[in-house]
């Protein structure tokens, strides 16, 4: 990852702002909806109907797995209900009353996409399928996936079951931060139960995600298909410090769509790795600026930026960056230390790419009558 001083970025911007950017040729994507993002920044590197709601089939199970990991315990014993056992194919053929560890069922969920497993997990964690789906939707909202609604834990179609390519990508980006999730989705094969459980049966599982075996540096994630959604796929790959997440929804139907979903995401990945590079454009800075203070014991307060900004950028975008501070002309005391009073904006061709808060470095007390009297005598010595 390269780092460029702010002064150099600003100078380069002044020298090159008159030039028109040359964008690389976009990837060939047959999916109805698709997106490519970089994990850390969540920046969209390519989008096709990226904000349009679409059914997502079993890519749903990314969220199912995350909720189970965060709300349950891997050693929990899950007892299979008749409702779970009667779920439609694709299924593990769990039997009513069968017992399995939650952690083992997550391999069934993510490696072979079993629908009965998803229902069993939902009932165990949420008390009911409906309760669990509410948890899924709430979690999506907390992550910023505000155009997503879950009605089933396995991805089977429903009128209130949909996401957008971008929402699904940021859910996947979040999931990759969980080491247990990554361990599960990158496992090639496993036999469960991994620990003997009374009332369990043995099941052999094989990872069905062909992307893992066919794309260099792939590290996930999940396939999906329903008659309504078509073939769907969310995939992830990492090279160096660049972690990309690609989503393809409705890549087609039949055998052609089954292959196309992988090709769509491969084309997205190739486009991203070929054309983008992560660049640190802003580092934490003390004394970034000063703002006048009214009615305070001091006349000015210093501001600082405590966060860095690292972005995936095209070669031409590096020349077009501008960094702008947005601060008030005056603040009124009292002022707390760490109070957010402004922000730093990073833009490219006037498009906002990122922003970070500007905070006060110290507190400023409101001046009293005594302070004014002291100030008068000091000034007139």
TrEMBL record:
Species in which this protein is naturally found: Sporanaerobium hydrogeniformans
UniProt entry keywords in alphabetical sequence: Carboxypeptidase, Hydrolase, Protease
Domain of life: Bacteria
UniProt name for this protein: D-alanyl-D-alanine carboxypeptidase
